[in-house]
Design brief:
This protein is an alpha/beta fold and 165 residues long. Helix content is 39%, strand content 23%. Bound molecules: flavin mononucleotide. Flavin mononucleotide binds next to helix 1, strand 3 and strand 5.
Length: 165
């Protein structure tokens, strides 16, 4: 049972979760940033992680996920919105669709600090209108991923490992 942990991370949030997950995965295991990742065909279980960009996995992760076929897979992700939001649910459902044909054993998602440069450049209307609720959400995101998120990510993947032969 060879395990691959592959992640895409622009500012380090998803990498932090990837590293926490990697710590509890059994050998033989390898971890790569998506830019350097080998073919998923070489592995039996793949932990794949992405950051959320405009309601989807970031482009690099998306392209990699499309290459995963007939594997046992665990999904992890970070986003600015709350992990229990409809937005987060939509993202995970969408990831499940991209990974159709694989056996998705579980998923984990948590908040991650939003790059302040991007916040400045984001449109200020529609869903991005700065309401008090949105401000609170952005402030909360600044505190993540924290140690508790890492522990929950490890717990989620420990559960998934029970589904491996
Ligand atoms: C260009 C851009 C688009 C984003 N789009 C979304 C989004 O649609 N929904 C969301 O909840 N967070 C969004 N975010 C927030 C990131 O998903 C979040 O900060 C994530 O933790 C970044 O992960 P990283 O540090 O691994 O790159 C966006 C961030 C950037 C930079």
């Amino acid at each position: 049972m060879k395990i691959l942990n592959v992640y895409s991370s622009k500012t380090g949030n998803t990498r932090k979760i990837a590293e926490a997950i990697f710590d509890i995965l059994p050998e033989p295991k390898e971890m790569f940033s998506v830019e350097d990742a080998p073919s998923p065909d070489l592995y039996d279980f793949i932990a794949v992680g992405f950051w959320v960009n405009r309601g989807m996995a970031d482009e690099k992760a998306k392209e990699y996920m499309k290459r995963i076929k007939g594997k046992k897979v665990g999904i992890f992700a970070t986003l600015g919105a709350y992990p229990n939001s409809a937005h987060a649910r939509d993202v995970l459902n969408w990831a499940g669709e991209i990974l159709k044909g694989n056996d998705v054993l579980g998923e984990f998602i948590c908040q991650g600090r939003i790059d302040p440069d991007i916040l400045d450049k984001m449109p200020k209307d529609g869903v991005h209108t700065m309401t008090p609720e949105r401000r609170v959400m952005i402030e909360e995101a600044k505190k993540h991923p924290n140690e508790t998120d890492c522990l929950y990510a490890q717990g989620a993947f420990r559960e998934m490992l029970k589904g491996l032969d």
